[in-house]
Amino acid sequence: MDEGEHEVDTSAEFDQSEGFDQPELRTGSPRVDGVLDDLAGLDDLPVAEHLAVFERAHEALREALEAPDN
User: Fold this and answer.
1) Rounded Cα gap, residues 58 and 34, in angstroms
2) For residues 42 and 50, is the Cβ–Cβ distance under 8 A?
3) Where along the chain do its domains lie?
């Protein structure tokens, strides 16, 4: 192994059927919370569709940052 490289432990098994219990995230911003809701639905989509969801999320977050405060 070269300097700076790290050994990765791949011996652990991961059962995807169990899922993850994640707390619901809320920011107080309806626009950002909408993006989080969209991202939370990724598990229900085929991986091939994830990129489009990430691209929409990125655009929505940029718009939220660029919007004047109301």
Assistant:
1) 12
2) yes
3) 30-66
Contacts of 38 (CB under 8 A, 6+ apart): 53, 56, 57
Distance CA 70, CA 3 (A): 52
> What Cα–Cα distance (Å) separates residue 28 from each residue in 4, 33, 49?
41, 7, 28
As given in the structure block, the two tokens for residue 4 are: 């700076």
Q: Could you read off the pLDDT of 9-61 as tens digits, one per residue?
A: 666 564 555 555 666 778 888 999 999 999 998 999 999 999 999 999 999 99
